[in-house]
């Protein structure tokens, strides 16, 4: 999941700050999610799938 998350962000030219704002979390918390230190919630996965216009399955572990 975290690898997909980082790759999608980079492919779309988004910054860590942009996605943290989308998820309404701190940049450091988002970075920890990308690294796999903190799990991404189902609600966050849904927001990300909608934002990137990808299937929610892309975010399944």
TrEMBL record:
It holds the Pfam family HTH_3. InterPro entries: Cro/C1-type_HTH, Lambda_DNA-bd_dom_sf. One of its GO terms (molecular function) is DNA binding. Residues 5-59 form the HTH cro/C1-type domain. It comes from the Bacteria. CDD domains: HTH_XRE (cd00093). This is Helix-turn-helix domain protein. It comes from Clostridium homopropionicum DSM 5847.
């Amino acid at each position: 999941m975290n690898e997909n998350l980082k790759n999608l962000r980079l492919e779309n030219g988004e910054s860590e700050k942009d996605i943290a704002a989308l998820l309404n979390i701190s940049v450091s918390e988002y970075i920890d999610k990308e690294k796999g230190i903190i799990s991404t919630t189902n609600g966050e996965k849904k927001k990300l799938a909608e934002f990137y216009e990808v299937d929610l399955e892309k975010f399944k572990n």
